[in-house]
């Protein structure tokens, strides 16, 4: 990854945040948005990923730990994320996977692995791969070597351990009043 690619990816995250919140980006707005927790977390992740791909072994791991301590998000430098990730809330979010462009992960979403002894479908042993424009609802979990098709919606509290076709919706069971 080049420095230009790092800057481009982070800029796409800021632009997606602004777009989602109806903010017209000016210099002052960019500075203001930079201090949002989700943007700070994405900056630390993108910087860690840049350094990881450049062969730095320790500093990316330190940035990963700082992200956990400051923002409550587990986003390791080994995770691959496309352009324009939108994270409205960082606390409790865990992402060990490959994410396509313009994905959205809401509060306490967990995307990650099985035991590590499972097959590798492109994200690492036992890890999921998400297509472009996938939305993962609050407290949803995507576990194991599964593929989530582009344009799919994983609803709040859903637990996914199976492949999901493109443009599909997965929901959790509806609660009942007893």
User: Please, what is the CATH homologous superfamily of the largest domain?
Assistant: Hexapeptide repeat proteins
Query: What is the N-to-C order of secondary-structure elements (H for helix, E for strand)?
Result: HHHHEEEEEEEEEEEE
Structural class given helices, strands, pairing? Answer: alpha/beta
| DSSP E strands, number | 12
- List the uncertain runs: none
CATH class division of the largest domain:
Mainly Beta
Rg over CA atoms: 16 Å
Mean pLDDT over the residues: 93
Q: Provide a count of the helices.
A: 4
- The count of domains is 2
CATH architecture of the largest domain: 3 Solenoid
Overall helicity = 25-40%
In whole angstroms, how far apart are the ends? Answer: 54 Å
3D shape: globular
Largest sheet: 4 strands, parallel
Explain what the structure shows.
The chain is of the alpha/beta class. It folds into two domains: 1-75, no CATH class; 92-178, UDP N-Acetylglucosamine Acyltransferase, domain 1. It is 31% helix and 15% strand. The protein contains four helices and twelve strands, in the order H-H-H-H-E-E-E-E-E-E-E-E-E-E-E-E. It has helices at residues 3-20, 27-34, 37-53, 59-71; strands at 80-81, 94-95, 98-99, 104-105, 110-112, 129-130, 135-136, 141-143, 147-148, 153-154, 159-160, 169-170. A four-stranded parallel sheet has the order 1-3-6-9, with no helix packed on it. A four-stranded parallel sheet has the order 2-5-8-11, with no helix packed on it. A four-stranded parallel sheet has the order 4-7-10-12, with no helix packed on it. It is globular and about 50 Å long.
């Amino acid at each position: 990854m080049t420095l230009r690619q790092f800057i481009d990816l982070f800029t796409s995250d800021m632009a997606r945040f602004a777009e989602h919140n109806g903010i017209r980006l000016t210099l002052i707005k960019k500075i203001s948005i930079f201090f949002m927790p989700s943007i700070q977390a994405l900056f630390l992740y993108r910087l860690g990923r840049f350094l990881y791909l450049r062969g730095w072994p320790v500093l990316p791991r330190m940035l990963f730990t700082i992200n956990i301590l400051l923002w409550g998000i587990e986003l390791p430098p080994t995770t691959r994320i496309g352009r324009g990730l939108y994270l409205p809330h960082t606390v409790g979010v865990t992402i060990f996977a490959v994410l396509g462009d313009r994905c959205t992960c809401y509060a306490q979403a967990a995307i990650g692995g099985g035991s590590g002894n499972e097959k590798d479908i492109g994200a690492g042993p036992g890890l999921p791969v998400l297509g472009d424009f996938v939305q993962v609802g609050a407290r949803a979990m995507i576990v194991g070597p599964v593929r989530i098709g582009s344009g799919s919606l994983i609803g709040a509290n859903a637990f996914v351990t199976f492949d999901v076709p493109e443009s599909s919706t997965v929901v959790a069971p509806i609660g009942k009043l007893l």
